[in-house]
Write a structure and sequence with these properties.
homodimer, 405 residues, alpha/beta, Carbamate kinase, VC0802-like, 3 domains, 8-stranded mixed sheet, 4-stranded antiparallel sheet, 20 strands, globular
Chain lengths: 405, 405
């Protein structure tokens, strides 16, 4: 008998029919002799709908009250799922984050989990019940309702699995698993049977939406066996495993394309100590995330600083940069919104030389120009023209033969 | 400085605009120098909508899960109201029943309040905040969410007022207050400035929907000063007061008409001990409420038993009665769905003789036939034909001069 934590996202419980399908799936797992804890998100667009109501009341609603409001979404889906499980003949009990005892810090709308009490869940599992837990939410020691922010339900599932020492945490979603590339871009993209935590983290932060980075970190930290599967079919999905447990260790695990960023460049900045710090401090104060940063070689006491960030943040960062240009007597700021970020990820890179050279050669052979490069231990990213992005992804997918196991 | 508990029903917070209006009203009360606790119901049809979702999942959903589901309705309205109050420049905090510490028994969907903790509310009031409490809901000592059943939010408000020793509990609704009769039926019906708890209780159980009987009982038991007012205007409303505090003590306070009942008669039942007990035990087991009961004088060892109940319960009671007819060898069951119950209520009755005679004479003079009579210390009810009900109400309203103060 195994203890399995399953998580179903908002689209998987998008309407009553889908809730009933999830109930069937959960019951099937239980009837195979497993103990099951299910984490669910709010149904479909419920959260968006609740936030829209709040915005009608106030442009800037209090985070504490937003959490009170938004947390009702998951409370609705857990109670309906428990009812659906009852209707199909199994015992079940729904629990809010507070009822489980998912204690968080007091940072409303993006709280972090501090501690999870396992006893209530274990008690109900021992009563032969399926335990249905509201994802995305927790409670402070002062009994205030909090939410975990983006990717919250995935994090709830992994955290519960850690607290319960579950044998497996299954994240159900609307795709079959993690692919070598986005199948909409790369026609022969292949579903991966397994991937390491580190690779998954890189992919998640590069825009693969299948799993949130935070839940992967959590799984890694607490050694939670994690897998991503489709809630619409019974195919095996992708297992996210520790590096030492990896069977195959290819050089490259996957290719990603991200066309959500823009490249900004401050031209002819005086090359003095502290200039970059001043720039990025200002940006950080506005809570804007910078991705890649490149500072070119200094020439005649001046340098160019380029960086990338989400296109949505341009309107917020532009006034800061204009200010800086005049303060620093730099020449100007240029903005390029037509870039694509192309990345290859794989832990195999650590033990293989020449991956970057092979990547750049393949792109050059395809006549694709590279304007920025950044690397980590298991990742190489290039900024290229947005129009070349899909073609470039296919080129690299072929170069590293990712379609073959 | 007074401490005031205000309660706003579902129609008063039916949409965002109305929520904002309630916020204004609450703030007005606070800015007059009062401490304010507000109790709100779920917005408009939210509760019905949630129950409809549950019914799609299961014909007979678990009460425990229904409470989980339905309690989200009030959580949504309190958080939105708190946001609206913030937006208008006052401090506010929303609290679920559980966060306040409204402890109930474990009877889901119709829980009774056992204890209310006042400390959290007092702490927030002392922080100069308006405290916004979710009506209709509570929590068990095991942290299970419960709801209080019909009239729940009124009960929450009165119970909070009792726990806080509030100076006044105001129930805001869509009518101006309690009337001498339903103004849609009796054209010169007059709004009452005050009414005693006992009278209000009788009126509530006779179908006056303005206040739920349970909240009136609570107010009486804990001496909570209670008033009913309109959320759409600023008129004074009706105060529900202790008998000793009543200024005017008319013979009759009001007239009510209830056309929701039917009259059932078992004909020629053997007049033996235990027959009535058998009948009404069977009915009680089905959780059907019986209103008036009349057993006629026995004749040749047989009697007729008549009683009234809500017309909606006829289909459930009919099989029981058919069974009983054959068991008891009674002759048959007749059902009359075209009755009206006409009642006069007033504590003045206690000290005035001849009220019944005066009522019956007035009806006789108007050619209205009476088929059943039942009385309590402060109430007389007659069953008449439904078609005569409105006319009869006007006749009695005139007879007892209820249009005059």
């Amino acid at each position: 008998m195994a203890l399995i934590v399953q998580k179903y996202g908002g689209t998987s419980v998008g309407d009553i029919e889908k809730v009933i399908n999830v109930a069937k799936r959960v019951i099937e797992t239980k009837r195979k002799g497993n103990k099951v804890v299910v984490v669910v998100s709010a149904m479909g667009k419920t959260t968006d709908h609740l936030i829209a109501m709040a915005k009608q009341v106030s442009k800037n609603p209090s985070d504490r009250e937003l959490d009170m409001l938004v947390s009702t979404g998951e409370q609705i889906s857990v109670s309906l799922l428990a009812m659906a499980i009852h209707e199909l003949g199994e015992g079940a009990i729904s629990l809010t984050g507070g009822q489980v005892g998912i204690f968080t810090d007091t940072v409303h709308t993006k709280a972090r989990i501090l501690e999870i009490k396992a006893d209530k869940m274990l008690e109900e599992l021992n009563n032969n019940k399926i335990v249905v837990v509201a994802g995305f939410q927790g409670i402070t020691i002062k009994n205030e309702i909090t939410t975990l922010g983006r990717g919250g339900s995935d994090t709830t599932a992994v955290a519960l699995a850690a607290a319960l020492k579950a044998d497996l945490c299954e994240i159900y979603t609307d795709v079959d698993g993690v692919y070598t590339a986005d199948p909409r871009i790369v026609k022969n993209a292949r579903k991966l049977n397994e991937i390491t935590h580190e690779e998954m983290l890189e992919l998640a932060s590069l825009g693969a939406k299948v799993l949130h980075a935070r839940s992967v970190e959590f799984a890694n930290k607490y050694s939670v066996p994690l897998c991503v599967r489709s809630s619409y079919n019974t195919s095996e999905g992708t297992y996210i495993v520790k590096e030492m447990d990896v069977m195959e260790e290819p050089v490259i695990r996957g290719v990603t394309v991200d066309t959500s960023e823009a490249k900004l460049t401050l031209l002819r900045v005086p090359d003095q100590p502290g200039v970059a710090a001043r720039l990025f401090n200002k940006v950080a104060q506005k809570n804007i995330n910078i991705d890649m940063i490149i500072q070119n070689v200094s020439e005649h006491g001046h340098t160019d600083i380029s960086f990338t960030l989400n296109r949505n943040d341009i309107s917020r960062i532009k006034p800061l940069l204009d200010e800086l240009v005049s303060e620093l007597e730099a020449s100007e700021v240029t903005i390029d919104e037509s870039i694509g970020k192309l990345s290859v990820v794989g832990i195999g890179m650590r033990s293989h030389c020449g991956v970057a050279a092979r990547m750049f050669s393949a792109l050059a052979k395809a006549n694709i120009n590279i304007s920025m490069i950044s690397t980590s231990e298991i990742k190489i990213s290039c900024v290229i023209a947005e129009k070349d992005a899909s073609k470039a992804a296919q080129v690299l997918h072929d170069e590293f033969e990712l379609d073959k196991e």
